[in-house]
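If your schedule permits, I should be very grateful for your opinion on a structural question. Please examine both parts with care and let me know of anything in them that strikes you as inconsistent. The record follows directly beneath this note:
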Amino acid sequence: MAVIFFLSAQPSLDSGLGDWDLILRKLAHMAEFGLLALLWWRALGSPGPAVTIALVYAASDEWHQSFVDGRHGTPTDWVIDAAGVALAVAFAALRLRASRAQSR
């Protein structure tokens, strides 16, 4: 969470790659919030609270960005973060189900 906060406090993360920069940054957001949810799931032992923490932190991250020069927080970015959380948790749940089925 500290890494996310640190990166969100940077005025610009533009790499100069044009359209690819935007795409790669959005994919990075999905990955970092998905990973955040998975780490909280592992720590808490339950996906529900982990998803809630990740989504609330994603909202607070967008709010934080609205105070940083050169950055802005948007509901669309929160939806992208939430998609990363959903994909990561769904993938982990499927893997968990498959591993439980194999051990029977």
Notes: Residues 75-102 form the longest helix (28 residues). The chain has a mean pLDDT of 93. Helices lie at 2-8, 19-44, 47-65, 75-102. The chain has four helices and no strands.
